[in-house]
Design brief:
Length: about 700
Amino acid sequence: MADQNVPPRRPRDDRGWDGRQHHNADGYGDPNASAPYGYDSPNPYQGGYPAQADPREQYGEGYAHAGQPAPGPRGPQWVGPEGLGRPVPARPGTGLPTLDDDESRPKVGRRKAMVALGGTAAVVAGGAALAMTPQLRGIFGDEVAGDATGSTVTDGTAARPSGQQPSTVRTYTEQNESYMGSRAGEALKKNAPTGGRTLSGPAAAAAATEVTVKTVLAKDPILHLARRATFGPTPEVIADIKKQGIDAWIRTQMEPDKIAPSKAELKLAELPTQKLSVQQLRTQRDQLNEQGAQPEREMVDATIARQIWSKRQLFEVMVDFWNDFLHVAADFDGGEVYRNSFDQDVVRKHALGSYPEMLIAANKHPALLIYLNQKDSRKDAINENLARENLELYSVGVDGGYKEPDVRQAAMLQTGRGIDKDGKYVFKPEQHYVGKVKILGFSHPNNSSDPKKADAAIDAYITYIALHPSTAKYVAQSLATRFVSDTPPKSLVDRLAKIYTTNNGLIKPVLMAMFCSTEFWAAVGQKVRRPMEYLAATYRTLGVSPEASPKHNNGDSKRTPYARGLRQIQDKLRELGQYPMGQPTPDGYPDVYVAWTSAGTMVNGWNEAGEILAGYRTAFTYTAPEKLVAKPPATAGAYVDALSQRLVGQKLSTREKNLILGVAGVAATAKVDATFNGAITAVARAILASPQHHLR
C-alpha cells in the first residue's frame, strides 16, 4: 500500500565515546570526518532515517525496510518504558567505572553517593518519588526501592489496513501521552498542579501563585522562569530578570530580532556551510566532499552553540519545541543540502510567528517533500506519507477526529507538489489529482489543474487543519507539556487552545497567556531535563566560553577550534541519545520524564560534567572549578553551600550536602582551601548530579 512506502533507514555511525577521562583536543574525534556528504554515498539503502532503534519495535512492521536486519545494540541510551526491562549494554571505558576514578583519595562510597543524588534527581519531579530503573537497581544493589517501569506500548497491526480508525491503528502513539500512561507517569500526575487562572501579566501571576507541589527546588519565581524559558539559568540571566523585571524580560525575549547576537553566534561564521544557499550546496558538492564538510552536521553544531550561548534563549527553546513538533530529521538523504534551509526558512522564520504559516511553508519545502516522499507522489501513484503525518503529527493529532478516508483524500489533494531540477519547490499540474475532496470537514472542488489554483487549494486545506480545534488543543497541550508539567492541567490547556484559535494560530499570544497563568508559576520542579538540556545547562552554569583555551592544539587545518569543539559536544549528545533534530522518525523526541530514564546515560552525563569541570575540552575556555566561588569559605560545609548557590541557584538539603561531603571524604566543619583540598572537581560534579540541576 502507498501508506507503507516510507523513507528507508540508513546506517549511522555507531562509534562510541572512547571513555578516556583525561582527553586531549581529539577526545571525541569525529566519526564522520572523512566521509563525503554528497550524493554518491556508498549507503546501500539510498537515504532515509539513520539506524538508531529498530522502527519495527516502535512503529510496526510497516516502518521496517525490506530485507534490512535489525541494528545491533548501542551504548547506554535514555529510553522509554518499552526498554526499561532490557539490560543496558556496557561499553569498555564508558559509564560507571569513571565514578571511582580518583585512586589517590580514599574511596568513601563515591559511586553510591552520586547515585543517591542523581538517582533522586532523574526520577523525582517535584518530590513525587519515582523509583530508580531496574538497571540502576541491578548495578547498585536493592537498596533503592520502587519500580519506574511502564507497560509496553505498541502501534497496532503491522499492515495498518485502511478503513480502520487511525487512533486504534496508528503509525505513532502520541509520544507524551503514551509514556504518561505508565505507573511512573501516574505517580507524576499525583503531584502536578490541578487548576488555575490567568492574570493581567506574568509578574502578577507569579505574585498571586502559591507553590503547593512537593519539590526540592527553591520556590523562587525568577529561578523558575529562568529554568523554563532558557536552556539553563546563568548568573547573567538571573541578573537580567531581576534588573528588568519578569514582565519586561519576557517581552524582550519575545522580540529576538532586537537582541544583539552573542560572541558565540558571531563565531558561527566559522561553520562555512551554514552561509551557503541550497543552490551553492548543490553546485559545490564536490569541493565540500573533498573538504569532508557535512552541512547537516554543521547545522546541528550551530544549533548547539545557540542553545548554550545565545541571548535569545526563549526563541531557541521555541525552535527546539517546533523541531520536535514539526519534525524533520537532520540525518536523511537530502538533509545535507536542504535541512539548513528548512531550519532557517521554516522553523526559525516562524518560531514566534504563525503556526499555519509555518505549516504551509513546511509543506512547500524540499526538505519535507523529500523526507516524507511527497515529491514521488502523483495522481497515478499516490504516496500517503506526508498527508498522514500532516494530520497525525503536525496538526490535529492521532486522536483529532480524522479517519482513513481523510488521509487518502488529503494525499490525493496534495499530489503535484515536487522539486525541480534546480532543487526548488515546483507544482507539477500533470501529476495533480483533479476532483472534489472532503477532509475532516474541509471540502474543495479541486477542479482545476492550473498550478496557482491547485496550489492554493492545498494551501487552503493546510490552513484549515492548522486552525482546526483539535490542532489548537494539540499545540496547547504540547506547549504546556514543554513549559509547565508532564501532566499539564486541563484548565490551562483549554485556555491556551482558545487563545490559539482566537489569534488564528499566532504563537506569541499563546506563550504570553501561559506566562500569565498561575499554573505555570505553580509548577516548580515539575520538569526533568532531557540529556541535551542537561548538557546545555551544564555548559551554561559553568560559564564555558567559546574561545579556545591557551592549551588547545588544533591539529586540524580544516576546522577552527570552535568548530571542533561544537562537533565534540554533538558527538557526546549523539552518544547520550538526544541531539538537535536527531530523532530519525517524524514524531520528534518525547518531552516527558518517563521517556528518558536510563542509568547509563545519567552516569555518562555526570562523567561529562567532570570532563567540563576539569577543562579537558580545550577547544573552549573554562572557569577553573576552584574559581567558581569568588571567595571560598574556609570550612567544607559552608563551601558546599556557596558552590551550590553558584551552580544551581540554591543551597542543597542537609542530606544532600552530607552526601557531597562524603564524596570528598571530609566533615562539614573541616578546614578546606579553594581546591577543597584537591576534591573541588568531584564536589562540583556531585552538585551537578543533584536534583536541583536535573530538574528544570
